[in-house]
Amino acid sequence: MSSAETLVATGNRAHSHGPGSPVPLQARSERTTSYDVADFPVPNGREEEWRFTPVKLLKGLFADEAGAETVKVDAHGPDGVVVETVAADSVQAGKPQDRIAAVAWAHAPETFAVRIPADAELTDPVHVNVAGLGARGFAHLVVESGRHSRATVVIDHTGAGELASNVEIVVGDGSELRVVTIQQGDAESIHVAQHDAQVGRDAKLRHVAVTLGGKVVRVSTNVRYAGPGGDAELLGVYFAESGQHHEHRLFVDHEATHCKSNVLYKGALAGDDARAVWIGDVLIRAAAEGTETFELNRNLVLTDGARADSVPNLEIETGEIEGAGHASATGRFDDEQLFYLQARGIPEDEARRLVVSGFFNDIIGRIGVAEVTEHLHAVIEQKLARTAELSAAVKV
Prior knowledge:
The protein is of the alpha/beta class. The chain has helices at residues 3-9, 59-62, 99-107, 335-342, 348-367, 370-395, and strands at 15-16, 22-23, 71-76, 82-86, 111-116, 126-145, 150-171, 176-184, 190-199, 204-213, 216-225, 231-240, 245-254, 260-269, 275-284, 292-301, 307-316, 323-332. The longest helix has 26 residues, at 370-395.
């Protein structure tokens, strides 16, 4: 019996996202993966994997055509780190799972690789900057940590235009790798990315997604395990303002035994048409005995007109696990917390800042890169200041 058949047997049914658009029930593992663009029809927005996304704004990235090659990629890091261009198929942590990822695979002008040597212990992070220069472009990045190494890689996405990117991450056996990806393009930029991570035997991955800017940002992060004892922690912070769409999709595929995954994403929204989408899929296959997993998403809606969609999904094919669970919550600003702080003489604006900062702090404290956390605090302060101005204007 397939996963989809199992879900139907337990009471689930096919469903529809609009008149004339029935969507059949489909397990996450049964979706198409391919390097061939032709295997992915241009979506119309009714498909399960696209129904929350403003597909009309992504027409340029759906086209199976070369870009203007207006993406600049550069990197620097401590001695011993290898930065080079490689063949596109030299590392295959995962196949494209949607049309845009397949287009980016086909048309990225080169594959940019960052390799951490075996047994290296880097005290300073490796920095990679991916900058859009104003048109439609593609990027393909590989990050690979050697056996028993310890390293941090920060990938900073900036600039303008339309960007489709693939990031492949290979965490060597016994190594510990932290990857921080920052999405902060200009106000009209569009960025769609697929991150694929392969976690080796007894290896640890901490993947942190920070989304702060861009008109449309959609990051799909997929994790699989190459051996037992792997540990993946997936963290995310996002703050969508008026007219911005921030979407994060995760798929953790537990196939090896005795592996762990922990997912924690938090987002804030402020302003008319601010939109956040979080989809979390975890699959525990029949062979993945001893799995331990949990996923949590929380959203804080700061003003009227903002909307957050949060959909956690969990498929379990074996009962021989350590534990599995998921949760999500979306709510408005806590007036009781605000009143408590104001009653102790703290001005309203400062009280709001403290509450929102506290909301994010448990994730920010785990990023582990001082310059990133300082930048994140500064940007959140700027966004909160704009939110306060917006709220004051509405009251007037």
